[in-house]
Write a sequence for this structure.
């Protein structure tokens, strides 16, 4: 009887330890992902707002296309564990931002519209053949009124913006959104140390 109790105690201890270690790892990934995504948004949003106010939506398109990648790079340079950060969506403006099959499964788990309850962020684990493990952190992006001149319905986008979009993004699918709509996610790849 005593032996059985001890075995039970050891078994539960092992289980709790594993569970604890896993969730700590996930917590660290979530924290790193949140910092990286936050750095991108703090760099991108004010640059976008300034350009929209100072030069109008047509010029601000450059901020979202050319400067977004520079800002993305500089926002993670100080984070040693982050190997990649970018924005993805099921309906893309730039086909380079399309999700892969694993990303798609995750995007489908976000809520379609605010203010429904649903995950703010999600984590996917990838095991590579050489034994390396990576975690992919996804943070949901929702449409705000300031996104509408470039991602809103036809009558919300100025003709000057449409002209640029037609020229630069002939396969644009990223229009017709309303405030609160799910737009996509910031995708952060975090290297997990063993
Ligand atoms: C001034 C125009 C403009 C505004 C305002 C704007 N965007 Fe964009 N957005 C773009 C352009 C241009 C791209 C394509 C960037 C590229 O080439 O990678 C883009 C791409 C994206 C992408 C990447 C997926 C894709 O479609 O290629 C997401 C996600 C996104 N925008 C979300 C937002 C959100 C959320 C807001 C509001 C907070 C917003 N955008 C405001 C012009 C804009």
């Amino acid at each position: 009887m005593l032996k059985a109790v001890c075995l039970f105690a050891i078994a539960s201890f092992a289980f709790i330890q594993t569970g604890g270690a896993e969730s700590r790892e996930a917590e660290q990934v979530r924290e790193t992902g949140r910092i990286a995504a936050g750095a991108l948004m703090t760099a991108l949003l004010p640059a976008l707002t300034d350009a929209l106010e100072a030069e109008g939506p047509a010029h601000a398109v450059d901020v979202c296309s050319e400067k977004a990648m520079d800002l993305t790079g500089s926002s993670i340079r100080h984070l040693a564990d982050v190997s990649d950060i970018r924005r993805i969506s099921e309906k893309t403006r730039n086909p380079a931002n399309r999700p892969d099959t694993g990303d798609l499964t995750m995007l489908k788990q976000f809520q379609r519209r605010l203010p429904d309850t649903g995950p703010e962020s999600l984590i996917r684990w990838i095991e590579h053949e050489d034994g390396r493990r990576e975690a992919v952190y996804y943070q949901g992006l929702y449409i705000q009124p300031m996104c509408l001149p470039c991602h809103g319905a036809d009558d919300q986008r100025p003709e000057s913006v449409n002209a640029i979009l037609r020229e630069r993004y002939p396969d644009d699918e990223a229009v017709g959104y309303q405030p609160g709509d799910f737009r996509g996610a910031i995708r952060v790849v975090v290297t997990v140390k063993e």
User: Anything to note?
Assistant: Strands lie at 82-88, 121-127, 133-142, 182-191. The chain is about 50% helix and 20% strand. The two ends are 38 Å apart (CA to CA). The chain has one domain: 24-191.
